[in-house]
Amino acid sequence: MKSVEDLPPVDIRPESCIRDAPTTFWKTLLQLGPGLIIAGSIVGSGELIATTKTGAQAGITLLWLIILGCVIKVFVQIELGRHTIIHGQTALQALNQVPGRFLSLNWIVWFWLAMMISGIVQLGGIVGGVGQAAAIAMPLTGDYRAAIEIPSEKEIRWMLDWEETRENNPEAFTSLPEGERQRIIEGGKLLRARLSELGERGSNAVTQVENNEKLIDPYTYDDKYWALAAALITVGLLYNGRYGLIQNLTTVLVVMFTFITIGNFVALQSTVEWHLSSTEILNGLSFGLPSATKDGRALATALAAFGIIGVGAAELVSYPYWCLEKGYALHTGPHDGTDAWYKRAKGWLRVMHVDVFLSMIVYTVATVAFYLIGVAVLYRFGRDPEGMRMTSTLAEAYDPMFGEYASWMFLIGAIAVLYSTFLVANAGHTRTYTDLFKLLGWIPRGDRVKHWRSISTLGCILPILCLIIFCTNIKPDVAVLAAGIMQALLLPMLGVGALFFRYWQTEDRLKPSIWFDICLLVSCVSFFITGAWGAYENFGSLISKYFM
Fold this sequence. Notes:
Strand content: under 5%
Number of strands: 2
Number of helices: 24
């Protein structure tokens, strides 16, 4: 049997590649992989950073939404995968058939392209996260570690504001829930202790904030050097890398950090100081919203949390490409209308279902662990990972159990999981951009040599482009906000595509159950709600910050 690397490009399905799907559980497991690649992308930037940050900001209240968000989105993912296996089409090919064309591309594909261009900045942030973690663990000049020793202006101002409130308006402080008061007190003590250890540097920082002077973070080089190393390694892997290498490497990286995180949470639960009680966990499953903050935006926090967890727009589009490279559609063969074909199609659709749901379990467990650690440690101390201190703040979630080894354990895992996101995202982009070139007629379909040449070339260009964006002095705020708008808008569009595939392009003999249809509709409705809200929020932020 030829390896996947030697198979023809995804545009053709020769009879020589046809074979029946496995029927036993263990043989089915050997055919899994596309979902694990997607999990590698999700667990990185989404779960490590965004979910832990949400736990640090919102507390236990949104646990139910975290779980729901991981589960409900997979039904659109399954529908896109189903269409690919049945028709042998890539995601962009399929979406390009949805009614509504402008020039040579469908309106959904145009929006996807805009999202991808603006989203390059986000990958620059991810390779920056890898650089931050490595710069802390293995400093070269030490400039980055020295810079992040001083708390951020936001953290110092938070401490000073609450100290002033406790002194001048004690009634406002005592009216807060007991848990919130304790969080403020402990967080303030922690920051004061850190500033005291810094001596004159710490007192100068506090004085600047008290005088309403801006604390400007210095430009550092250690994180840039390590980001360069990560980008060059990625170029080497993607230039010659095929599906098997990406799947195996991603699986190792994700498993490594996920087990560390789950182990940390279990260890936290064995302590008196850090454990979450059953009452707290049940409260997190009670379909509540965070307590209203000073600006009263509990609902905004909830919808933002739902939008960042589980599979996102980019992952939904890239999943069918990994299904194709794994061989699901190739092994099904071209649709000839025979009973044998329908049997193969149902068999490989079943394998795809197992792949999706097992990977969903993997990243849901990891997501919940990240979220609960954020609640148990960071939320209780009022810590919020952001900016150049993002990685060092996240590492504090591991201090209670691992002490002096916390940074090493977290940083090794963070490098692994953030790098897996950077690798998988760039690998996926090489496939989707190559497919776009085919839609535009720049690369002939069925040309195996040009197909892989395009992927190798893009594998050299994209990581370096991400690195350049991270290393420049320009502020990527506008681009990040624009990427947020496009991500929010694309989700409901992909929902439209999934519904089109399900109700207009799925044969009766391959239709799913009524329960799947209900879940698919719920998934699409959630896309519309969070997409509309996310676009409104990000667009409003963009307008207010730069045009008002």
